[in-house]
Specification:
Helix content is 37%, strand content 17%. By secondary structure, it is an alpha+beta fold. The mean pLDDT is 95. 53% of the residues are buried. Strands 1, 2, 3, 4, 5 and 6 form a six-stranded mixed β-sheet that branches. Strands 7, 12, 13, 14, 15 and 16 form a six-stranded mixed β-sheet that branches. It has a four-stranded antiparallel β-sheet with strand order 9-10-8-11.
């Protein structure tokens, strides 16, 4: 469980003593440095690192980093809002000691996610991890709800970084094939060992559809810890791959054509230990609140894509009939539906039932994505939003008039379209707050302008090694 308390200058009660003990323990295990990690608005993981001996100091006073990274683009150019993007100011990065872990994939290093506060000790309004902690706390206070979440991770394994930045698959076996599993057996075995040593519960690891592509599914946690885990797992995947001489890409579209890398969100709402997605009188065992929660997400999907599919390369992946979920439709185990209802197997449904949000990729900042998905769901729950008719099969095959009558519409087909939907959605912008919402818009506009005039091949190449 991740703490919901904000860091404070001087450290929260017990933080410094705990960090001192943890630092000594890590040093005794040969850990020399700690990676302090957060994800920027563009979806790029940014870090500062400190010697292990400075962990107690970081817990007390944080580590400095400029707020300008909130308006960095994936290519490291900078845009600006009325508040963010200047060279002025400083923030303090405070490690969450609950999530501190020695990195088995990077011997000699430990890792911790950070919250960012101002030098005056106030919440930084651009900190996405803080935004997620805030909405989780709000759901508990106003609705008595907690959540369990997990983020699927798909990635493509290449034969090292080659000249020109091309992608050459490190394995050639067919989708889901034993051939591909054997080809990368040593790498994936080491990856499983590293994740186990780091306390990451892995549900599945298997070859996926695209060339050289794999997917890993991990156990569900509270949303903040789930977002932390997503960042940690990707750090580990990349580190272990590097030790085997491979390069990995989490980009939404490694190539202009074909299936890209997704980052589907699984989410369930709970009250007093009871899963609202199971045992109810609604469809597939959902309670009325679970149906309204799903309806809220479904209704706001067009605006959500600005956060869950935030890269120009995302729209190379979001294509009909490729299981990416590009229509406002829901269904039980319907992999073309944007919101998939997962009931789980008989005997496990009370624990396993959840909903999956599919138009999500790993260019998304996981903290932003979960904040907005939860906000959309809570809005539906509060208003008692009705869940429309279920869609079966491929929504792309519906007659246009039938689709319109059933409320099935195509999600934005480009990043500028998604930004316009986000601009109109007051609830999602309010969930992030004006500073962070404006940063989302500015960064998305900057990314769109950065690829203006590029064809699909060059767009894919521009983002291939950024995430």
């Amino acid at each position: 469980m991740t703490t919901l308390a904000d860091p404070v200058p001087g450290g929260r009660p017990g933080d410094v003593e705990r960090a001192t003990a943890l630092g000594g323990e890590l040093s005794g295990r040969g850990v020399h440095g700690v990676v302090l990690s957060y994800v920027d608005t563009a979806g790029v993981c940014r870090v500062k690192t400190i010697p292990t001996a400075k962990l107690a100091s970081a817990a007390a006073w944080g580590v400095g980093m400029s707020p300008v990274f909130d308006t960095f683009l994936a290519n490291d150019s900078i845009v600006a809002t009325d508040v963010l993007g200047s060279p002025d100011g400083d923030l303090r990065l405070y490690p969450d000691l609950d999530q501190l872990v020695a990195l088995a994939g990077q011997p000699g290093w430990a890792w911790a996610p950070v919250d960012r506060i101002t030098q005056e000790g106030e919440r930084h309004p651009g900190c996405s991890r803080t935004a997620l902690r805030r909405i989780v706390a709000e759901a508990a206070e106003r609705h008595g709800l907690s959540f369990r979440a997990a983020i699927e991770i798909e990635w493509s394994v290449g034969q090292g970084a080659v000249e020109g930045g091309e992608f050459v698959p490190a394995a050639t076996g067919p989708a889901y094939s034993a051939t591909r599993q054997v080809e990368l057996s040593a790498y994936t075995a080491d990856l499983l060992a590293a994740l186990a040593a780091q306390g990451v519960e892995v549900e599945q690891l298997h070859p996926e559809y695209a060339a050289g592509q794999f997917e890993i599914s991990v156990g569900a946690l509270d949303p903040v810890a789930a977002a932390d885990r997503s960042v940690l797992v990707r750090q580990t995947i990349r580190a272990v791959a590097g030790r085997h001489g491979y390069a990995v890409s989490f980009a939404p579209a490694v190539l202009a054509q074909g299936v890209g890398n997704g980052g589907h969100i699984h989410l369930s709402a709970w009250r007093e230990g009871v899963n609202l997605h199971s045992g109810g009188a609604g469809r597939y065992g959902m309670t009325a609140e679970a149906e309204s929660f799903a309806a809220g997400i479904l209704r706001r999907l067009p605006a959500l894509t600005a956060v869950t599919a935030p890269s120009p390369a995302s729209y190379l992946r979001l294509k009909p009939s490729q299981w990416a979920g590009v229509f406002t439709a829901w269904g039980r185990e319907t992999r073309e539906a944007a919101v998939r209802i997962v009931t789980g197997t008989t005997g496990l449904r009370e624990q396993a039932a959840n909903l999956e949000v599919k138009p999500v990729d790993l260019a998304a900042n996981p903290y932003l994505a979960l904040t907005c998905v939860i906000a959309a769901g809570l809005d539906g729950l509060s208003s008692g939003a009705p869940l429309p008719e279920e869609i079966t099969g491929d929504p792309a095959r519906l007659d246009p008039a039938d689709a319109a009558a059933r409320g099935v519409r195509r999600l934005p087909a480009s990043l500028p379209e998604a930004v316009e939907e986000f601009r109109k959605d007051e609830r999602l912008r309010a969930a992030l707050g004006p500073v962070l919402a404006d940063a989302v818009i500015a960064v998305r506009q900057g990314e769109s302008e950065a690829v203006e005039g590029l064809d699909d091949e060059r767009v894919a190449a521009a983002y291939r090694w950024k995430y």
